[in-house]
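Still learning. Any example?
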Amino acid sequence: MTTPSTDPPMRPRKGLHVALWIVQVLLGLFFLMAGVTHGLLPIAWAAQSAPWVHDLPVPLVRFIGIAELAGAVGVVFPALLRIVPVLTPLAATGLMVIMMLAILFHMSRGETRVVGLHITVAAAAVFVAWGRFRKAPIDPR
């Protein structure tokens, strides 16, 4: 017969929490800028930094921008405020999906020079999702 452990549950290391917060804030800033560009700026202005917006219907570009803005908010604020913090790894998962779709889109257009950035951002989103789902979840209030 085995006895139940009386050891307290393992707490994640502080370094992991710090790393996750840094990556969450960087993701939030990245997607805030992308979301403003794709979702709020006039299309002519957005095309200066993202020429592909001319090749998609404006409502789709706006939808992408709004999804990026929602992800930027979701990857930081639920964990920061500890109000439904499970939304943070869900937002990170959504941002990873956006990046995977962006990779496919840009590869199909032969725009391989931007794929490295998208892979890096997708990996950062996977790190946040993994960390906040499994290793260092944020407890709600």
